Amino acid sequence: MSRRIAILTGGGDCPGLNAVIRAAVKTARGYGWDVYGVRNGFDGLRVSDTFRLSRERIRGIIHTGGTILGSTNRVDPFAVDVNGQAEDQSELVLKNFKNEGFDALISIGGDGTQAIAQKLHERGLPVVAVPKTIDNDVSATDVTFGFDTAVETACDAIDKLHPTAESHQRVMVVELMGRTVGHIALHAGIAGGADVILIPEIPFDVDKVCDAIDRRYNAGREFAIVVVAEGAEPANDKLQLNGQSKDIMQSPLTNRIAHYLQQKTGKVVRGMVLGHLQRGGSPTTNDRVLGSRFGAAAVRLVREEKYGQMVALRGNAIVSVAITDAIAQLRRVDPEGDVVQTARDLGISFGD
Predict the structure, then answer these.
(1) Are 183 and 307 in contact (CB under 8 A)?
(2) In what order do the strands lie in the sheet with 4-9?
(3) pLDDT at residue 240, as a whole number
(4) So what's the pLDDT on residue 75?
(5) What is the rounded CA–CA span in Å between residue 6 and residue 309?
């Protein structure tokens, strides 16, 4: 039976999205189906902005970053900003989906995108989900594509900080993405030889960070690398004290940490926020393969009419799980887990 599938990418972009799109189109074509791209996430369905994903459209995209479909994390069809008021336009999405003659939707995104997909599914839209985030915080899957590339980018940055830190006997504080979880910081910190890693799952005492730095300098290693996840949480209010100016108190966490470390240790401290560089670049081999596996598996779920499901990686197997299970909670770093314990065994401080 011929089918007409729509596919969209929502939320922040990440390496590997185009590999998913390519695999979904090629798999669907093998069944004799047509696939249409939806521009800019669910907003493309709201305004009926779609186009056919032909062979030419997906040619040469597996190694490229970003998404050929465009994306947005600012439009929720259940709460569209109309003259400053939130308006539910989900019915328009469902109407346009039907008018376009689509039989199923493949939604590629993180927990926010999939929460929207689930709400539309509950209103009758046949949807299959693919987990996407560099933060690796989607529950029900061991890993998401994009994470491996983001860690590689972050580790490369840390590698480049080492020689300048050592040359000038400085403490370098580098902030990495992750929202409210510390997977990127933890993995990049270990791989990059960081001396301190601060993550949201382990509240830190900045004085203990100072102690770790002092011990390193006293041992003859007169530089240090401190990796900070953007959602890291101080265990107390020490970063608000010590005569800091209002400007410092209102600055990002990394700047406040750098200011405190310099004041307390007497070392020269420099801070850097890596930011959106972690979202860019060509996907690693692992992300290209995982994205391709997810894309092909999503089309197989459509063939089996297993809607309301998300593809996931468990061990080395691709499985399907309910979208509701995937968005029920964030996948956080286990403070007692093997990866954290490995970091501690390597002498890395978590400031606790």
Answers:
(1) no
(2) 50-52, 34-38, 4-9, 104-109, 127-131, 309-314, 317-322
(3) 60
(4) 83
(5) 16
Contact 283, 16 (CB under 8 A): yes
**Confidence bin at 285 (pLDDT 50/70/90):** very high
Handedness of CA 249, 253, 254, 256 (dihedral sign): positive
**Given the residues 135, 137, 148, 287, the one annotated as active site:** 135
Beta-bridge partner residues of 196: 226, 349
Calpha distance 204→296 (Å, rounded): 42
135 is catalytic: yes
pTM (2 d.p.): 0.93
- The reply to whether CATH 3.40.50.300 applies to domain 148-279+335-345 is no
Q: Tokens at residue 229, please?
A: 């996840």
CATH top-level class of 4-146+283-315: alpha beta
Q: Please, which residues have CB within 8 angstroms of residue 94's CB and are 6 or more apart in sequence? A: 120, 123, 124, 125
Q: How confident is the model at residue 235 (pLDDT cuts 50, 70, 90)?
A: confident
CA-CA distance, 122 to 250, in Å (whole number)? 42
What are the extents of the domains in the chain? 4-146+283-315, 148-279+335-345
Q: Predicted confidence band at 241 (pLDDT cuts at 50, 70, 90)?
A: very low
pLDDT value of position 214: 96
